[in-house]
Fold this sequence. Notes:
Elements: E1 4-8, H1 11-26, E2 31-35, H2 41-44, H3 48-51, E3 54-56, H4 65-80, E4 87-91, H5 95-108, E5 112-115, H6 130-140, E6 143-146, H7 149-157, E7 164-166, H8 170-177, E8 191-195, H9 204-219, E9 227-231, H10 236-252, E10 258-261, H11 266-274, E11 278-281, H12 284-293, E12 297-299, H13 307-311, E13 315-317, H14 322-333, H15 350-361
Parallel strand pairs: 1-2, 1-4, 2-3, 4-5, 5-6, 6-7, 8-9, 8-11, 9-10, 11-12, 12-13
Amino acid sequence: MKPVLVILGTRPEAIKLAPILRELRKRGHLFTILATGQHTDLFTDTGLADEFPVTPLNVANWGVPDQFIPQVREKLQQVYYECSEHVVLVQGDTASAYAGGLWASKDSKWPLVHLEAGLRTHDLTDPCPEEGYRVALDAWAHLCLAPTTLAAQALMDEGHEKKIEIVGNSVVDALLALPVHPVPACCRSRTVLVTLHRRESFGQPLEDIVQGLMEVALEYNTRHGFIFRWPAHPNPNVQQVANRCKDTINSLKTLHNLWIEPPMTYPRFVRTLATARMVLTDSGGVIEESTTLGIPCVIARTKTERMESVHSHHAILAGKTTEGVAEALRKALTGSLKVIPANTYGYGDTSTHVVNALEERYH
């Protein structure tokens, strides 16, 4: 098979690509991993760089995709201008994936493979720019690796039916590799885990989401209530809101069950999630993980590209208002969502299907 060039830059990409890399290594295929520099601290705690040799591009990320993407593209062209053809593999909807796909399709003209293809909210403004990145990557790709039938249908609706493979989501492979197993509902802790990081929520929407969280935490601040644990993302926009929340907690002196913590490593986060009562999140990966583990999920967004979890009643869309978040949390805490683990996103064999597809197309 042709050598594979894997371009990634964020924590979710590292988590979801690691099982694919293990399968490529197991079968003796050649691959190179390029890390763009989009994430640094959150990227390193996945352990990917300890397990595989990673070549850094060292592009500084200042949170401005229009500056970051051209720099990644330029670096890729400098490094691989005279190299023989590779298969370019990117995952998801990040600026790193988009930059890699743009370079593959427009500069090197190498075959592009998009892992986690077909996710759609069908609204280019929500999330922005991620929805646009997904649509463009699937248009450029030679092979679209869809995680679910719903994602495959979106790709067919856009005319990509000849290049679709349904392979599941490699996040399930990543969970099983830790290993982390579902915990019966009766044995779970009274922890409500919180993750909030999306760019489109920065500012007042995030303030409103956290206000709804604090209202419900205060209602359950009893001896036998719930502990709300928020490992706050290091982004300055999130940290500002987290610090104001800490000030409120200190002034109230009654909100002892809302804990704001440093970010967790991925293994620790998943172990905490697996035993939690529920999760409040705006992360797509956490939606997938919680459904796989049977943990009820409140989504702090108005739209999601993971509607499979909503349709199966493992998750509920709360929106970004204080009232919407508080109401959704109350519903979830009183048992309105399923607590049974589901194979919605696969059975842990996605990496096998992915490498089979690569071998078939690029032998």
